[in-house]
Each structure stands twice: as C-alpha cells, then as structure tokens.
Write a structure and sequence with these properties.
The complex is a heterodimer. By secondary structure, chain A is mostly helical. Chain A has one domain: ABC transporter involved in vitamin B12 uptake, BtuC, CATH 1.10.3470. Helices cover 83% and strands 0% of the residues of chain A. In chain A, helix 2 packs across helix 12 and helix 3 packs parallel to helix 6. Chain B folds into 2 domains: 182 residues, Rossmann fold (3-Layer(aba) Sandwich); 114 residues, Rossmann fold (3-Layer(aba) Sandwich), CATH 3.40.50.1980. Helices cover 44% and strands 13% of the residues of chain B. In chain B, strand 9, helix 10 and strand 10 form a beta-alpha-beta unit. The longest helix of chain B is centred in the middle third of the chain and has 30 residues. Chain B is globular. The chains are: A mainly alpha, B alpha/beta. The interface between A and B is large, with 40 and 41 residues.
Chain lengths: 295, 321
C-alpha cells in the first residue's frame, strides 16, 4: 500500500492537484499524437532538418503580427503560418523551376525569414522580451492555445489518413510523387502544410525548441524499435507522450525548467534506443555479430 | 553622410512600429526645442534614470535613455546609434549593481572617456544568491540617494562650463528631494493603514525586494530575480499553493513581463489579477507612469487597492500594450 501511495504521489498527484499540470499534459499528449506520425514521415523522407528550418521560418510572420495586432494568439498563429507556408512554397517552387535541390533552397529561404524576424523584433524595441511572448511556456497554456493544439492534431490525423498511401510509397520510392505529376505536388504540399500547422501550434504554446524536439527526437528513436511506417509512428507518438509526462514530473519534483526537461527526456529516450533498441541498435548489432560468428 | 542620431526620425520610426498614438513618443523631442541650447548631454541607461536626470538637471541638460519606456533592460541589445549617442555624451548615468550587463562593453566600444555615474552608489544593498539585487530604486529612500548622486555628477560637469546652470541644478535637486521624501512618507502611511496579514501579493518577476523591505509588503514571484529564466513546474505549483491557502491577497502583473503565467496562476487559485505594476521601466510619455514619482505613486495606489478587501479591484488589465 505504501508503495502504491508513493507511486501515486510521484506520478499522479501533481496532475490531480494542479490544473496547469493537467493542461500541460494534455497539450503534450495532443502534440505527441500528431507529431509522432509527422516526425516519422519526415525522417523516412530524409527531411529531418526541414522541421527545424520551418520552425525558424515562422518567426517573421509571428513577430509582424505581434507588432501590428499586439498579443493575439490568432493573429500570431496566422502570421506564423503564412510566413512558414511562404518559405516552404518558395523553396518548393525553386526546386521545381531550377536544378537547385529543395534542401538548398529551403536553407536559403529560412535564413532570410529568420533574419527578417530578428530584424522586426529588434526594430520593435525590447518591449517585453518578445522572444518569450512569441515562444510561450508549457506551464502557461491557456484555453485558446489548448483548443488550437487539439484542433491542429485532429485535422492533422484526419488529413494524414487521407494521403497515407502516397506519402508512404514516396518514403521508399523518392521519385513516386513526381511521377504522379499534379496529384503528387498536392500531396507533398499538403504534407508540408500539416508540418507547418503542427509547428505553429507547438511554438505558440510551448516554444520552438519543444515543438521541434517533440516532433523529431521520438521519431528518430522509434527507428530502433519498429520497421513498418504505422508502428514507427505509434512508437514515436508513445515516446513523445511519455517524454511530456515524464518531463513535467521532472520539472515538478526536481525544480527544473519544464520545456528543456521534456526535450531532454525525449533526447534520453533517443540515446537509450540508439544503445539498446530492438532493431539495429549498437547492442543489437553486437549480439547479431556474435551470433553470426558462432554459426 | 547624415549618420547622426536624429531624435525626430527615431520618434517617427517608433511611432510607425509600435502604433503609438502620440507624436511625442520619444522623450528627446521635448528637450531639444528649448530657447537656449542645453549645456550638457546626458545619456542614461534606462527610462527611470533618465527621468531623475531630467528632473534634477532641468533645461541645462539634454537627457536620453538607451532603454526606452516599457522595455526590459535585462535583454537590451545596443544598436550603432546607441554607441554614437554614448560617444557624444558628456555624462553617462548607470544603475550599477550589474543591472545593465551590457554597459561596460558599450562604453568601451564607443570610446567614451567622460564620467560614468553609478546612481545606486551608497545605497544599503539587499543580498541575493546571485549577488546584490539591482532594483534599488523601488525604495524611495534609495531614490533620494540616486537623485543626489546624479546631482553631484551634473554639478561637477557643469561647474567649469556654466556655473549659473550648476547653481540652478542645486536648487532643482533640493526641490526634487522634497518631493521624493513627501511621497515616501505618504506611501508608508497608506500601506501601514492596511492590516499586516493582507499585505502579501504575487507578481511575475522578483523586482520588488527593496519595496518589500522598505514598506512592509511580502512579494511572491515564480521566477528568480531576473526575467531571463524559464520557471519550473515546482515553482509555479508552490505559488499556486500559497495563493490557494489565502497567503496572498492579490495577483499583480508587471509592465515588462509575460503576463500569461500570472493569468494562469490567477485561474488556478481563484485570485483576481489586481492591476499592473511598473518595475524596471516607465510607461511612454503622456501615460499613467511616465516619471519616477508617478510610477511609484501608481504602484503604491495599485497595491493598496488590490490588497484592500472592501474597495473593488481595478478593471483587469489588457495584455496588449
């Protein structure tokens, strides 16, 4: 009984006692559910760094919206969304019209956007630490941000279900969407839009570090446990949710800042998976080599 | 090359960018159009010091602030025009106590060799784990020390150039000291009139240590003593608990902090957000807290209102600036 009571006090009680902990948990849960599959598809399509680029591309739009409309979740979300979609669209257009590859044009456009964002922020003066206003903290998630994240998750999962097949085929046959022509471009565009949507939701409520961290780290860790796209996505979502839950508890019991605690926990899931995951991890390779030698 | 710092253009930019209504958004705009040109150019690190220098110096000095109204001096990044302003100054006024971490590099970069006044010199310091608490102006007795340090520096700088102006500064300084002392007495009386158990409030950053010690109010803040760190769940939980156990009577937001966290705590604990305090920066010219005296009076009034049981609390503050 005492063990149960201790476990309850350690793992459950903080969420029972405090509404802000429950909200933070729900935000991580929603974010993890949609970031799992999207992160997995990014990794499989060799676009792991695109998430980071998009997260920075949001900045000028969100900053401009803040300068023009003040502190408004919707204005800043729409501003960030438009800026990031513009960067993704321009990068795609350049890849289509010139021989330059998409990763190069992506790098160029996101750096332009990032610099523009920093410029807008510094011209605005240092009124409040604007970076902190733009990148909220998971402990202060309010109703509006929670609805935004939950809505984005719902839309993302439904939309992913719709274009699941072509996206998965593209992962293993990189030329597939191009062969499809217009339809292929639409699928690719929809996927990038979903990516932007998820990062907008994440960065508003939790900050860029957390939004990208929760998307990419669980997806890279999942690779050492599963092989099919659906199981990769499921493992990634599970890791993301566990990181959110555990990170919040760490922040609560050990008095650590919550954003970094969540991302570092996701990072340690990755390190553990890398060392001793079921598939292709360092340990698994060692064991299989030994088995080969014996045979 | 017209690279010179142009106050009207800067004011215009600010207006354009911030959407501020008033054309005199930049405090420099009034200082320049006096009949006889000012004898001394003074650069203060932030709005509050600039105001004290303006009060004490009068028409003899032209004062500008590096960190303007409603801005956070903790995270300031100087621009080339700031370097130019410092280079062209006769006197530079700083708070000291490592409040402006960037000022030494800025002075070095500008090649400025004139006097650097540390306005907080001589105040009784509050020690914190990270060093001395720099927010010393939140006690009016320290404010009097600030004004005296600034007076001494201005008089010394004016003595050779224009003795008549120096004498005028002495007169202005003693009048200003009287105003500070009167507000100090008044603030003490108003706060002392409240029952001791009501005098506990929650704010978003711990800038009111001197205020707390001088006027007998307990401030509880979720972050450490700077605006630069992310709070932990443990710190927020502790504050919510304190608020729930009725150990605090009001929640107050600040003009330079992210208000979302305080709003979250308000929802969680059932306390009302009782108004906005000015901690490290004044409000823009022409608004409620555009001078040191008005800022202090505003803070005392807001606190007393929030902590009294009977009076209705002021309307909730909008987050939008």
């Amino acid at each position: 009984m005492t063990l149960l009571a201790t476990l309850n006090a350690l793992l459950i009680q903080p969420f029972v006692e405090f509404g802000f902990m429950r909200r933070a948990l729900v935000a991580c849960l929603a974010l993890g559910l949609s970031c799992g599959p999207i992160g997995t598809l990014l990794v499989l399509r060799r676009m792991s760094l695109v998430g980071d680029a998009i997260a920075h591309a949001l900045l000028p739009g969100a900053a401009l919206a803040f300068v023009m409309f003040g502190f408004s979740l919707w204005a800043m979300s729409i501003g960030g969304f438009v800026a990031a979609v513009a960067v993704a669209g321009l990068a795609g257009l350049v890849a289509r019209l010139t021989p330059q590859r998409e990763d190069a044009s992506f790098a160029a456009f996101y750096l332009i956007a990032l610099a523009a964002g920093v410029m807008i922020i510094s011209m605005r003066g240092n009124s409040v630490d604007l970076m902190r206003v733009l990148f909220g903290t998971v402990l202060a998630v309010d109703d509006a941000s929670l609805l935004l994240i939950a809505g984005i998750t719902t839309v993302s999962l439904l939309a992913l279900a719709l274009v699941y097949r072509p996206l998965v085929v593209e992962c293993f046959d990189p030329g597939f969407l191009r062969h499809l022509g217009h339809a292929g471009a639409w699928v690719h565009g929809l996927f990038l839009t979903l990516l932007v949507l998820n990062l907008v939701g994440g960065f508003q409520a939790l900050g860029t570090l957390m939004a990208v961290g929760l998307m990419m780290l669980p997806a890279t860790a999942a690779r050492f446990w599963a092989a099919e796209v659906w199981s990769l996505a499921a493992v990634a979502a599970l890791f993301a949710v566990l990181s959110g839950w555990g990170g919040l508890l760490l922040s609560y019991h050990a008095n650590l800042p919550s954003g970094p605690a969540i991302v570092l926990l996701a990072g340690s899931f990755y390190m553990l998976s890398l060392l001793m995951g079921r598939r292709d991890s360092l340990l698994a390779r060692q064991l299989s080599q030994r088995a080969h030698r014996k045979a | 090359m017209t690279m010179e710092f142009d106050p009207t253009r800067r004011a215009f930019q600010r207006q354009l960018l911030c959407g501020l209504g008033s054309a005199a958004a930049w405090p420099l705009a009034h200082a320049t159009d006096t009949a006889n040109a000012p004898a001394l150019k003074v650069v203060a690190t932030f709005s509050l010091l600039a105001d004290i220098a303006r009060e004490v110096g009068g028409p003899a000095v032209e004062v500008s602030a590096l960190v303007g109204p409603n801005a956070d001096a903790h995270v300031f990044e100087p621009t080339p025009s700031d370097v130019r302003r410092v280079a062209g100054a006769d006197v530079v006024i700083t708070n000291g106590l490592r409040f402006e971490g960037w000022i030494d590099r800025l002075i070095k970069a500008s090649g400025y060799r004139g006097p650097v006044v540390i306005a907080s010199r001589g105040v009784a310091l509050r020690q914190l784990s990270g060093g001395a608490d720099p927010h010393a102006w939140q006690d009016l007795a320290n404010g009097q020390r600030y004004a005296d340090n600034i007076r001494a520096a201005l008089v010394a700088a004016l003595a050779a150039k224009s003795p008549a102006h120096a004498a005028e500064v002495e007169v202005r300084a003693s009048a200003y000291q009287q105003k500070l002392a009167a507000l100090d007495r008044d603030s003490r009386a108003r706060i002392a009139a409240l029952p001791a158990e009501r005098r506990r409030v929650i704010t978003s950053h711990d800038a009111f240590g001197y205020f707390a010690a001088a006027y007998g109010i307990t401030f509880i803040a979720p972050r450490g003593w700077t605006t630069g760190s992310e709070p932990s769940a443990e710190a927020v939980a502790r504050i919510v608990r304190q608020a729930r156990q009725a150990k605090a009577s009001a929640l107050l937001v600040e003009n330079i902090s992210d208000p979302r966290l305080i709003e979250r705590i308000a929802r969680e604990s059932g306390l009302k957000v009782g108004g906005k305090l000015y901690s490290d920066a004044l409000s823009p010219p022409g608004t409620e807290a555009d001078t040191y005296l008005k800022m202090f009076e505003h803070n005392v009034r807001t606190l007393v209102q929030a902590m009294s049981l009977d009076t209705p609390s002021p309307a909730p503050v909008s987050i939008r600036e």
